[in-house]
Write a sequence for this structure.
């Protein structure tokens, strides 16, 4: 843990300077967050968390028996039209935390029995998170750090996290820029996501387990969208070709949340026919990981929690 503290010390100043002309993510808003200016993600100078708890609905090797010590940060640089957490991802909702308060939250989750510290949508608050994390590590935080991201990231920011992040829990949502533009206003998402995931894979090329729990890994999540099975096939092929030892988490929990009802064909759930086609395709790729059952019940969705929930 001392090594992580030293690494953060070497890298934090450059990240903090970025806040004065913010280009932490591909949006490149160039706003001065120190002076109170707000960019696309909605984030200001201090970190804002919506909720935190021991999450037992993540992938099995992350949640384990006790749960993943999950902190959901408010705001997002992607803001998909179908976002299940739009209440706090499309706007800043929650508690503004000082670095001391965030440090205390991290240590509290560990004390409660968390198998890891799961930072959800952290990119826009990375300078603030790293300051708090350094403090927490110095005070006894010793569980794996999970970086839970949409992957709309810059490769150079992910490079700064080398040696600090133990588990990357990364989405790969789109491989077609037009689809990314339609649903996430991010035509360049495929470029940035692939570059950042390749860097994550470079850092964590082989998963490391201990008693059934992940200690180091790249887990690539893909949420299957209805009407886009061919898109999903292309994504699975890319994973097989470029990150074959990563752990796949193929998710069928999609629900037409938020504004999705206004968009065809994503104003419905994935059909049984679509599910069967993609599962048949997946069998020929020999990828390791988890495949979610075709479900419609919200309570069964592996990474879903009701946006109003404040406790596990």
């Amino acid at each position: 843990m001392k090594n992580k503290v030293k690494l953060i010390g070497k890298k934090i100043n450059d990240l903090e300077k970025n806040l004065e002309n913010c280009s932490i993510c591909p949006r490149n808003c160039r706003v001065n967050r120190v002076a109170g200016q707000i960019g696309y993600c909605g984030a200001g100078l201090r970190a804002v968390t919506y909720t935190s708890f021991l999450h037992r609905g993540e992938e099995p090797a992350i949640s384990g028996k006790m749960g993943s010590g999950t902190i959901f940060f408010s705001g997002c640089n992607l803001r998909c039209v179908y976002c299940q957490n739009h209440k706090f991802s499309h706007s800043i909702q929650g508690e503004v935390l000082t670095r001391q308060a965030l440090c205390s939250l991290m240590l509290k989750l560990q004390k409660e029995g968390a198998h890891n510290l799961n930072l959800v949508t952290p990119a826009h608050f990375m300078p603030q998170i790293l300051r708090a994390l350094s403090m927490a590590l110095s005070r006894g935080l010793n569980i794996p750090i999970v970086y839970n991201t949409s992957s709309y990231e810059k490769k150079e920011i992910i490079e700064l996290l080398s040696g600090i992040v133990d588990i990357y829990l990364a989405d790969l949502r789109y491989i077609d820029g037009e689809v990314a533009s339609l649903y996430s206003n991010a035509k360049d998402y495929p470029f940035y996501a692939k570059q950042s995931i390749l860097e994550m894979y470079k850092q964590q090329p082989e998963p490391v387990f201990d008693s059934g729990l992940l200690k180091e890994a790249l887990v690539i999540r893909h949420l299957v969208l209805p009407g886009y099975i061919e898109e999903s096939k292309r994504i699975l092929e890319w994973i097989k070709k470029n990150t074959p030892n990563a752990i796949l988490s193929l998710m069928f929990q999609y629900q037409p949340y938020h504004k999705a009802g206004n968009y065809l064909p994503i104003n419905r759930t994935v059909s049984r026919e679509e599910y069967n086609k993609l599962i048949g395709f997946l069998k020929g790729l020999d990828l390791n990981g988890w495949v979610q059952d075709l479900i419609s019940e919200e309570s069964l969705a592996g990474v879903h929690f009701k946006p109003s929930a404040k406790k596990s």
Remarks:
- The radius of gyration is 18 Å.
- DSSP finds ten helices and ten strands in the chain.
